[in-house]
Amino acid sequence: MLAFNLLDGFSAALTPENIALALLGCLLGTLIGVLPGIGPITGVAILFPITLSLGLEDASTLILLASVYYGSQYGGSTTSILLNVPGEASSVVTTLDGYQMARQGRAGQALAIAAIGSFVAGTGSVIGLMAFGPPLSEVTTRFQSPEKFLVVVLAFATVSSLAGSNIFKGLLAVVFGVMLSTVGIDLQTGVPRYTFGELKLQEGMDFVVIAIGLFAVSEVLTLLEDTVRGEKVVFQKAERIWVTFREFLFSLGAIIRGSVIGFFVGLLPGTGASVAGFMSYGLEKRISDVDETFGKGDIRGVAAPESANNAAAGGSLVPLLTLGIPGSGTTAVLLGILISMGIRPGSGNVFSETPELIWTLIASMYIGNLMLLLLNFPLVKVFVKILEIPPWFLMPMILVISYIGVYSVNNSGLDITIMTLFGLIGFLLRKLDVPLAPILMGLILGDDLEQNFRRSLVASQGSYSTFFDGILNVALILLSIVVLFLPQILSRARGANVKDEFADAGAEV
Amino acid sequence: MATTNPGDGSDRTRADATADASARQSVAPGWSDRVLGVVCLAGAIWYTIEARTFEGTGFGTGPVGPKTLPTGIGVLFGALALVLILRPDPAPRWPSRTAWWQIGVVLVSSYVYGQIIQPVGFIVSSAVMTIIMGLLFRAPARLLIPLSFAFPALLAYVFNNWLELRLPAGWWGGF
Amino acid sequence: MTKTWLRLLAMLVAAALAAAACGDGDDDAAADEAATEAAEDSADDSADDNAEEASEEESSEAMDEEDEGAEEAAAGFTPGSPECVAPADAGGGWDFTCRSIGQLFEDLGLTSNVVVTNQPGGGGGVAFSDVAGNRNDNSDLVIAASPATAIRFAQNQYEGLEADQFRWIGAIGADFGVVAVTTDSEFETFDQLIEAVQADPTAVVWGGGSPVGGQDHFKVLLLAQELGIDPAAVPWVAYDGGGEAQNALLGGEIAVFPGDVSETIGNEDLRILVVMADERVPALPDVPTTTELGYSTIFPIWRGLLAPGGMTDDAYDFWVDALGQVEASDAWVAARDENGLSPLRLLGDEFQTFALQAVGDFRTLSEPFGLVNE
Asked: Do A420 and B114 touch (CB under 8 A)?
């Protein structure tokens, strides 16, 4: 029955219109991913309101945006390899061996193995999603407010402990996001909070506006600073994208291990692709680096993290679709999009209630993978050309498109002001090493946190024991505590955590 | 939003001062995090005080009212801000004075953009924005002026006619 | 605009080619120029295409307008660019009202294409203050309304605005409130439920898709008032919409869900104890009504339109007449039945009186509980 649903999804995704949209999304996404500093979150956030204006079916909108997501992730790996500039956090670790390979004239192999690894991992994670998604959804649909509250707590614990180097800054970011989520009318009592008498604020802060401000505008400001500083990127040429069968077999172990780790890391609510990339690189180094070639242009050092971050993107769809908990900034934006379409993962079983949409989305991710593989082999040279657009034109272009995105949400100039303010906040926090994605997660999930907490207490007639009722609740509490202190525990146990290893390798984060 | 509202403008100058300080001495003093901590603490205090004023309607909505969670996270935010003040990370590399000045110009023009987009219209306000940024980067003038109008005009055309998204036309009209 | 995606694709390919072409030039400036030219060329080409299509559209519209000419003479007014404002995001009840009625205006040849504008914010307040402040004498414009609108007017939630500042055009079709429990609930009948609530109001947890004082909770307020119970004692859990509330009901978190007919029909896990109406509704022929059971509380959720206060009498008459024609059409009957609505026809002055009366009643009921803003 599940396979049947996926086949249905394929037949829905394979209409000419949807294929064209997937192609468009992959192209746009790759272009966005290649642009310096502009990553998947920005791409999806800017394009979402614009996509709405196309008047497409919900499934087609999702296909387009999912392809943008995949494409931009892939474009990010391309710049990691050719420029030593990661498009987003998840491809930071790819720069280690990828850029070294490019400097040795092996950029073609690095790009090829990244594409192949992503494709294999994407395939694997679709299978994993089919295996885990529906049964988990059966369980989580029965969750009531206390469980939902504890799941959000777990997600916050995970994201703040894994998002950055300093756990307090991660927590600070989550709490800031939750504070933003309290703006607006209180759902239980109808009381307006933090609205300053502004009617527009009664609906709450719009996540698209905040996301574009925090990510797109602050990225433009960072770019501006780099340009003023006179930093110029030098990119390595990729003549031909290819990989020999021997090299493929040599990397196959890394690809499979990376895919498995990536998928399971993605399953944890609140963790996403970047953690998976670091973990799989660390593990692969420990297992395979007998000749100490890692960090000096080892093809497995590209294969492992690229497979892992792709598998994690698939794996993080499991908590996203079953619990409504996003694993990264981008999936947080995807969640916001699903909610605005009236699909509320976590409060209903999306696999049984809206199977068309969900399986079409999953099928389209698979198709997107294949498309990227086919697109990137001939077109990578074209994509890299976008880097030659001069910054004086690129920056206002990004800003103007952001304005359109923000303005079209509510037709309101106030949103542009809010976006600008959050651009400044994002820029300052970036400088101070405060991770931004947790702010977005706090904003999107903050309401769930509060409302489920209060609903639990009304339903239990005021008894707090409702949160400790049953083995599942206790397990969720314990898991949250463990996850919060996981990085410290890991670094104590091993002397250093994977991120330190990465820092040891001498790359700039 | 809550945290930066009170000290938005002063924030920048303080951070600027920090940048200069860290430029003078090579040892990173961690003042940047302390400033962030102080700003957050002020925000937390304001947020928590504000939270105490929310009154429910006295209906059967449970023992926890609209002020409970805001109070709780306000206090937590304040505590985290204190941690930042007490245990700051080393300071980052702040932008130079020139870069700050340019960032300021971009932010101000972005704010003005939001104020004028409805009366003036999308094309003209976008063109003005593009020209300002082009001047900041010493773009070749013979390209800048035509491109600044051509690109927003193209976008406006595409959005208004193909995508059914109406951008404000303003005094000069649009498509 | 079905070919939108194709055009976008063409544009993108053109842009990619332009980027490729410019990359080969050594001189940056020259390359930029090439890119711009290429982009402009492609824009020009498609502009031509678009112009052709536009002119076709125009000519067909012109023909439509000729057809309407006859009717126009009779009505004395035809909206030039008719618009329906849904004061909320797409997908809700107001949006449904605008889209379904707007489509029928057009299909019945009463108006040209009706543009639906979603203007969310402040539970409708953003839209109402915009219309009253900036477009008060616009005769081409109507706004979707329902009892939720009347409740918010009653509770002064639309700052500085009163219900009588607008012209109420009419309501066609009504949903009704229901009281639903699960099929395995201990309450078999409405009377059993009422008995339990009267014995101990705090014993049964209610929940729905609105905060206290909102549309779903108002059903509790009305019932409590009739039964002489203190409504503040009844536990109320608010959810983000009726769908979420139903899930909570099925999961056992709340015991009773006072929803609407339209959102509960077809859900076999629910037992609907009563419909808050005076007559049985077509969608639920087997469920007793409150009137049948001897209660006076009814809760119709009418779907209606209102207009800016400065609308001319000619225009007001046109819209009232048009709405009446929609109500009488087969297409509306089909749409109404499909969505579980019951027949209702309240037009013009009759509706104006009804709506203002409803606002007054809601205010009287809200005041003692401090739900009316200063």
From this structure: yes
